[in-house]
Design goal:
By secondary structure, this protein is α/β, with parallel strands linked by helices. The protein is built from twelve helices and eight strands.
């Protein structure tokens, strides 16, 4: 399953991408000049979102992920652009299908350990690399391109899994904001069965604010929002939220604030003691699997109930005497 790596992707990869909050702060502090300088706006997005095109080492590191029947697809978009999707079916045809939306920096190949953990929990996975990442078109992304790519991937998940009660939207970190935005436009039960958010924040400026006074200045002027706080109240499906209390990228208090803004009774919160930002699946494997498998079983139960309702004979209409 070889990658497609364009010359443009190699050029972007050569610039390098950091993974520390300090780089995000640097991007945010460019804000005061963004309105009058397109280059600074692009540079802000490039540093904060850290798109990561495919490199040969990424492919090699992900080689243990693949199973028979796995499919890697390139979807053609307007203007000659492309979107890379992976379809990784589960062993059981009754398994729920999960749309995987990753965060900044790491592309799908680099996210192989987390994707493997989700498959282990019992999900089929439809994963997408937004444009700017992986084998998708190389560009400097923004919130709108990421949201559009998630919607295109969602259409593919609907095709692969026609039963809405067996569809799940999952987002990690920034991908959680993309997931909340997508889910807020859909109807629980009719369109999808559940939302899973891992290591996710309220708004991107809030992440900067947690870094101290310098971050608060940047947060006040940045054009990057990724605002889940204003949208999560519209979610009308079960929400599973996973967060480590030692997360140095998205502090756990931001996850708790997002949880508290969800509709009452919708969110199940699982907090991992000592857990970091990106490796909860390996830091706490038993608890991680327990939380996700519990969701799988709940979805299977809901799907079985829905199937039973479809096949149950209609109650007779009582006859009235004239």
């Amino acid at each position: 399953m070889p990658p497609i790596v364009s010359a443009a992707q190699r050029a972007l990869a050569g610039r390098g991408s950091g993974s520390t909050p300090a780089l995000v702060l640097l991007a945010l502090l460019a804000g005061p000049w963004l309105g009058g300088c397109a280059w600074l706006d692009q540079r802000q997005r490039e540093i904060a979102l850290r798109p990561s095109p495919t490199q040969p080492a990424h492919v090699e590191a992900a080689s243990s992920l693949w199973r028979d029947g796995d499919v890697r697809e390139i979807v053609q978009l307007p203007a000659g652009q492309q979107l890379a999707l992976w379809w990784l079916p589960a062993d059981s045809a009754e398994a729920p299908a999960l749309l995987y939306l990753h965060g900044t920096f790491r592309n799908l190949y680099q996210n192989a350990p987390k994707i493997s953990a989700l498959r282990e929990a019992g999900f089929a996975v439809l994963a997408v690399d937004y444009r700017g990442w992986g084998d998708s078109t190389a560009l400097v992304p923004d919130e709108e391109t990421s949201a559009a790519d998630a919607r295109r991937a969602w259409a593919e998940l609907q095709r692969r899994q026609p039963d809405p009660t067996r569809r799940v939207i999952y987002g990690h970190s920034m991908g959680g904001a993309v997931a909340v935005r997508l889910a807020s436009t859909l109807q629980g039960g009719r369109d999808y069965g559940a939302l899973v958010l891992e290591s996710t924040f309220t708004r991107m400026p809030d992440v900067a604010s947690e870094a101290g006074w310098l971050g608060r200045i940047g947060a006040a002027v940045t054009t990057l929002e990724f605002d889940s706080l204003s949208r999560i109240g519209r979610i009308d499906a079960p929400i599973l939220m996973l967060h480590g209390d030692a997360d140095n990228t998205v502090p756990v208090q931001l996850g708790r604030r997002l949880r508290d803004a969800a509709p009452p009774g919708r969110a199940r919160w699982v907090e991992f003691p000592g857990g970091g930002h990106s490796r909860l699946q390996s830091e706490h494997p038993a608890a991680y699997q327990r939380a996700l498998r519990g969701l799988v079983e709940a979805l299977r139960g809901h799907a079985a109930e829905a199937d039973a309702r479809k096949t149950r004979p209609a109650a007779p209409v009582p006859r009235t005497t004239p």
